[in-house]
Amino acid sequence: MGDVIKGYDINEGSMEPLQLAILASLAADDDEVVLCDDRLEKINFDERADFVAITVDSFNARRAYEIASEFRKRKTIVILGGVHVTLLPNEAQTYGDAIVIGDAEPIWDDLISDIKKNTLKKRYEAPFGTPQAGRFPRRDLFKGKKYLPVSLVQYSRGCKYSCSFCSVSSFFKKSYQCRTIDDVVSEIEKDKLKHILFVDDNLVTDKKTLKVLLKELIPLKIKWASQSSIDTVKDLEMLDLMAQSGCVGHLVGFESINVNTLKWFNKSANLRDFNNYQEALKIFRDFGFLTWASFMVGNDFDDLDTIERTVEFAIKSKFTLAFFHVLQPYPATKIFEQFKAENRLLYDGHWWNHPDFKYNAAAFIPKNITPEQLSAAAIKANKDFYSWSSIGKRMLDTKTNLRNLINFSVYSRFNYVLKKTST
């Protein structure tokens, strides 16, 4: 997946590439499908294939384009899709024989048919609709690969919020679509899944429908986690159903402890609850949920002191996990356009394609510190949070991290992995 900066190994603890397994399920029964994960294994560019499909996000764009170029040198057809391709189709078009804009499932049969008929178009574009309608991922393709022992499942796509830094809002245009509940339950039962991470950008967007799903999950006896907004705590009935259905915890985008930053980010869910972070955390704890907190550092109100105070807040709050990401100006987002207008973008304005860019490094000029200070501060923040001292302090929470053997196991395993990747 490209280069990494010292202090980050983004290939360590890799998760299943669910989207590729979903596309594989669309192939005809007599079509052979091979999954090669560049994070974990060496690509055989000389392997004969009718075509190669590559999913592209902004962080792996340069590597994805390198892979595409190698296959095209060998006259292998290359199809590019994913969030980055949808946001920058003209750029992606130069690296692939065809690109897919939006969700791939609705147009995949047509694309395959066009390849077989030698009538491949340059672009395929599909409107967003019901995700994975009647389709289940080919999990057999994951066998033998060293993924974390958790199964990824998707219930919904999109998010109703429009945070200024978020590429999801730009990709889905604030739309939100759910799979049918029968499909989700059938997938879990069919593949005998027991430990699940719902990969939805915000699982609780449609609380009424989610409650129906949660009731269906109760008899399945699974353990699961998700990404959820802080306003999850406002619905106690839903939280109770989550607990009954096997919820272990949530990844929550706190982003900042500064109200001015939250306003700048247009983080509306957090703004409504900014004065009640501790109250919200207490509610999560009362239900026994682990909390994985995500923060973005380097915003226009940050300096070295505020970043340190953010880490102190995370340790004091005894979060099971926390991630301190450098604010990234993703293409086609409001933040990107602002920094571009202010002439603050580094790497010629295209950090995702620049050979000198390193993961979680500053790609813009911050207001109050230098780019070098910001990159170093992010590394230090993650190192401090995953220091032995911090791991010991945070572990001592009998309502969450020490609540039961499962919680302690999750806490121990993931803190160990993240300590390794942050030092």
Write a structural description.
The chain is an alpha/beta fold. It has 2 domains: 18-125, Rossmann fold; 153-421, pyruvate-formate lyase- activating enzyme (Alpha-Beta Horseshoe). Helices cover 38% and strands 14% of the residues. It contains 17 helices and 12 strands. It has a 6-stranded parallel β-sheet. A 4-stranded parallel β-sheet has the order 1-2-3-4, with helices on both faces. Strands 6-7 form a two-stranded antiparallel sheet. Strand 11, helix 13 (304-316) and strand 12 (321-326) form a beta-alpha-beta unit. Helix 8 (207-217) runs parallel beside helix 9.
Which structural class do you get from the secondary structure elements? alpha/beta
Counted up, domains total 2
Span between termini: 20 Å
Helical residue percent band:
25-40%
- Architecture of the largest domain, according to CATH? Alpha-Beta Horseshoe
Quantity of strands, as a count: 12
Radius of gyration: 21 Å
Continuous helix count: 17
Helix/strand order, N-terminal first: HEHEHHEHEEEHEHEHEHEHHHEHEHHHH
Strand order of the largest sheet: 5-8-9-10-11-12
Which superfamily, in CATH terms, is the homologous superfamily of the largest domain? tm_1862 like domain
CATH class of the largest domain: Alpha Beta
Specify the biggest β-sheet. Answer: 6 strands, parallel
How is this structure best summarized?
With 423 residues, the protein is α/β, with parallel strands linked by helices.
